[in-house]
Amino acid sequence: QVVLVESGGGLVQAGGSLRLSCAASGRTFSILSMAWFRQAPGKEREFVGNIIWSTSYATYVDSVKGRFTISRDNAKNTVHLQMNSLKPEDTAVYYCAAQQTPGPYNYWGQGTQVTVSS
After folding, report:
1. Among 10, 42, 81, 93, which is least packed by CB within 10 angstroms?
2. Which of 27, 31, 25, 36 minimizes the C-alpha distance to 77?
3. Concatenated DSSP letters for 6-53?
4. H-helix or E-strand containing 83?
5. In tens digits, what is the pLDDT along the chain, a chain of 118 residues?
6. Are 24 and 34 in contact (CB under 8 A)?
7. CA quadruple 17, 40, 108, 58: dihedral sign
8. Distance separating alpha carbons of residues 106 and 83, to the nearest angstrom
């Protein structure tokens, strides 16, 4: 079992920055990768990016490349999502997720709201 707790959401003006954090506990040694997803009102959940637990190699969806950075704090079993140059279209509930094997992410955090005002 892996438990994920997110923090760091809030309201920011366009062009601003926010950093989200996702603290993992439990069987963290079994994590293959962790990811960030987001869901805007009336839209389906969207993959934002992920990070391989063992290598810290990160990938991103095209719409956030160059603006968002995923990093891992090994000592704290925490993954961060640094979001810069935020746009109103980045407004969504952001979720972190973890997977133990390739395939669907099977552990999810509770979500944190990010609102970007124009």
Report:
1. 42
2. 25
3. EE--EEEETT--EEEEEEEEESGGG--EEEEEEE-TTS--EEEEEEET
4. strand 78-83
5. 999 999 999 999 999 999 999 999 998 888 999 999 999 999 999 999 999 998 999 999 999 999 999 999 988 899 999 999 999 999 999 999 999 999 999 999 999 999 999 9
6. yes
7. negative
8. 24
Q: Is the distance from CB of 46 to CB of 37 less than 8 angstroms?
A: yes
pLDDT at 29: 86
Burial class (CB in 10 A: 0-12, 13-18, 19+), 101: exposed
Residues, the chain: 118
